[in-house]
Model the fold of this input.
Amino acid sequence: MTTTAAPTTSRAPARTGRLRLRRDPWGHPRGLAIVTWIYILWSLAPVLLAIRFAFNEGRSRSAAQGWSLRWFWQDPTLSVFHDPTLRSALEQSLKLAGLAMLIATPLGVGLALGLQRWRGRGSGTTNRLTLLPLVTPELVFAVGLFLLFTTAFSFIGLGTTAQVIGHVTFSVSFVVVIVRGRLQTIGGDIEEAAADLGAPPWEVVRRVLLPLLLPAIAASLLIVFALSIDDFVVSQYLASGADTTTVPMRIYAQARAAPTPALNALATLMLAATLLALALAYAVFRVLTRGERGGRSALGQLASLEATIDAGGTK
Amino acid sequence: MASRRIWRTLAAPGLLWLIAFFLVAFYAVVAVGLGNVTTLFEPVPHWNPLDWNVGYLWQAVQDVVPGGVTWPVVVRTVLYIAVAMALSLLIGYPVAYYAARYAGRSSGIVLVLLVLPFWISYIMRMFAWTNLLAPDGYASKALNALSIDSLFGALGLMDGSDWLGGQPITVILALVYGYVPFFILPLYASLDRLDHRLIEASRDLGASPAESFRRVILPLSWPGILAGMVLIALPMFGDYFTQDLMSGSPNTNMIGNAINGYVQGGPDKSLGAALTILLSLFLLVFMGFYLRSLRREQRGTA
Done:
């Protein structure tokens, strides 16, 4: 792995390789490679160990003790499947993520389409307003919604509805960023052609733009699902009691209280749901954009998307 | 014109949603912070600016200046975040640089592994460390066997050998662990675009590797470093859960804990709202900077 000879020298004799090395001492930044791989190990190993403990046979969640599915469903009282507090947390998380995904995506797609073409008065302000939730610290945002639902909007109150509204509000901006990226890749030619051929604006949107946006819409749905399921601060501030507790809230409440590996099992299931949603988003995006030339790879798009995202932190 | 109206109609629902639940929510913080309370200390928001009562805001200002009750928390927050950002730079820069320039054939897999922590819930990543840093956890056993606890103790960074027992060093390192992926990715994106020919030119003109790094690469990396720094500073200033999970001691409380305590715990919701206003005003500088670079980026790819 450390033999990073440049592809161009692969046919040349070894001596040339050494000469290149002497001329350009950065050709083999072995120290940098080691630092990078140690960092990657450090960033992922704790999570892998937490997952490993979920499969423990014993009760310890700080040491490996055999293998079993006891903490997922075999244990009759303490497993995720049988402990009502853990099970309802999982159900609440999935419910919020499902609803947030179905509400935030259409709102975001409409907003992105509108912003892309709407020029003139109000468009600049709207644009800034759309980006603002991405850079607002989650605590400020959560305190605002909490005070809103306990004062002016007290007819909504705290609870599941408030939690869904909160998740939708921070997700809409992500959908806008994803869809606008796709609109830029598509360009305006096809749309103009449709308009020139006499299609009224609604038809252009329905028969030209929406089909072309399908990959971005699919990706948005699943990314909102992943963002919502990982959220902690907004869920906690807008919760109203035990039955509105989500998985991250349950983990936060019990992490220090010496629980059983069932908590690890719960965290593992949540991670599996997130990664499944993302893998699906990636696969769907790939399949739907197959055969397009000139665009960047789906992986590249995903990476640059994440680079623009987000100051929210816990999402 | 129908063609123009359609775009506004499409944007309207999302726009109204953001106004109702983002702008008005923020205004609720202002209205409560500048409002009043009932005899039961429940906040009474003053929505009309003419009715504003600056009492709580004034109290919050007095709390966060030297001599105030929240002043030590403010100092601690700035100190923790400054150290965490410096460590993030030391760890993140080499990693981003390697991934952008030298990963070669393995760049795809390196990128996936660098992106992965983004999508693992922050709470789960902290939870993983509470497993490892518990007194019988693998990490705390290894660290104590290497006498790292005594070393930190001698340096005054740690007290005893319980890593989860209110240690500032644990909170700072947890902040680094939590946020460094958010620093690496924007930095990676900016280093990836760095023009290699400029570095080659500097070498051809006789610069040593160190000189070429200092005078060419580093100046070209500054925008990426700044963007990454801002991106992690914003959530760190609003963080209360890292401290709660990794320490839980009032001796390591940060400003986020203070706000969370007022708003969720005690009767002083109005004071909490006033502190949130002050924090937002402070962070506005960072947010404005980041929004500007984000918009420049959008325009650049258009």
In short: The mean pLDDT of chain B is 87.
